[in-house]
Amino acid sequence: MSGGGDGDSTYGRKPFRRSRSHFADRITADGRDGWPVDVGRYRLVVSRACPWASRAVISRRLLGLEDALSMAVTDPLQDSRSWHFGPYPDGRDPVLGIRFLSEAYDRRESGYPGGVSVPAVVDVPTGQLVTNDFQQITLDLATEWTALHRQGAPDLYPERLRDEIDEVMAGVYRDVNNGVYRAGFATGQAEYEAACSDVFRRLEELTPRLRRQRHLVGDTITEADIRLFTTLVRFDAVYHGHFKCNRWKLTENQVLWAYARDLFQTPGFGDTVDFDHIKRHYYEVHTGINPSRIVPMGPDLSGWLTPHHREELGGRPFGDGTPPGPVSRGEEVPASGRP
Predict the structure, then answer these.
(1) Where is this site: Lowers pKa of active site Cys (predicted)?
(2) How far is CA 100 from CA 4, 80, 93, 110, 335, in A?
(3) Is residue 60 domain-resident?
């Protein structure tokens, strides 16, 4: 498929590529694209399996936008009809009234030939897709939805650090976020080795940076941390084996493993992660890589809750703000998906 996030990539005999988001309208404070920020008007559709959608889930929770922007979680196993709302009664989203996310795409553009990807933001009154621009959605949540942020919400994209954040995120996206996919869906040895080398080169370049500072940019959590975390949290569970990114495991890199655990144990990160959804999606949907659809029993997840000692580096995860409160009722990750 083509589009923005997971379920959207093209693979097969040709080299892997991730196509650009087709629906790139923005929801802004001034409504310049025709979509003004408005309480309750939009619904965020995500899969907890998808790293690109997980960015939006984490950002929404950190910023306290749960009451302003409702969220629908799809089944981890999409089929040819697209992501579907199996977790809900009668397999139908209770707000949008649809069974498949493709219905919202069709209402926006009938006969759209591209893929149906998450994250997606849907206009509730009309039921049509607004955007599937996974790169921009979280930036807009941080900068355009500020009037609706909770008291004490962190600044995830501080203006004074944006150039550095953008530079770090660009390298992480190219070599890590998307690099694991290029390795996993490679169709030739040279293509695979180049992508896999990029993944570990970038991770090894980030290691000394994170050895001396708690977060990627500045002394607080930013968008850059969110984007790296969503790949790291999936690394040993799926990317190491399923995508053959196996030069070493995350747990074997003392610095990155501690960094990932620090974020996982921070409210807004680990409490959004569903390892059951992650493993089932990758191993059961990617039949070209795993035709048996067997889901491995491991890895042991208990390590995610062990002490990380990253607080010794200083830093202020939420700056002058505060952590988010408990997970909203009905949005808790089931016990089957937690360490």
Answers:
(1) 239, 282
(2) 17, 10, 8, 15, 26
(3) no
100: in domain = no
Q: What is the CATH number of the domain that holds 275?
A: 1.20.1050.10
DSSP of 99-123: SBTHHHHHHHSTT--S---SSEEEE
- The Cα diameter of the chain in Å comes to 55
- Determine the pLDDT at residue 56: 98
Asked, for residue 231, whether it belongs to a domain, the answer is yes
Total number of domains constituting the chain: 1
50 in catalytic set: yes
Alpha-carbon distance of 254 to 119, in angstroms, equals: 32
Please give the annotated binding residues for glutathione, written as ranges.
83
Please state the pTM of the whole predicted model. 0.94
At residue 15, does pLDDT exceed 70? no
Binding residues: 83
- Residue 245 structural domain: 159-337
pLDDT average, residue stretch 310-314: 97
Catalytic residue selected from 50, 157, 282, 283: 50
Residue from 225, 196, 195, 197 nearest 209 by CA: 225
